Amino acid sequence: MSYVDGFVIPVPLGKKEDYHQAAAQMWPIMKEWGALRVVECWGDDLPDGKVTDFKRAVAAESGENIVFSWVLWPSKDVRDAAHKKMHEDPRMKDMPMPFDGKRMIFGGFEILMDEGQG
To answer: Taking the model in full, what pTM does it have?
Structure first.
């Protein structure tokens, strides 16, 4: 069964293109490791919530926007193997990270429902 890694990332507004380039650089590597799809979304309509919201979830600061991203894997086993490779691959050592990685939230998800795909 497919598996998804999900991310919410605070990115400085002036680093949008840097983030896009870093994500584009990362995609071929993730594809090599078995990823089926990567989707990177730049926040466009992020209302302030009364209890929580995307910005508060990552302690976004003034001048930052939110990236919502996910990676589709064929299985959790493939994803787990890719995560191991990520920590061992020398290409990852100099990979640019145009955001504060300490405030990124991420996690792995089993697919509960997946409708409307072609």
So the answer is: 0.92
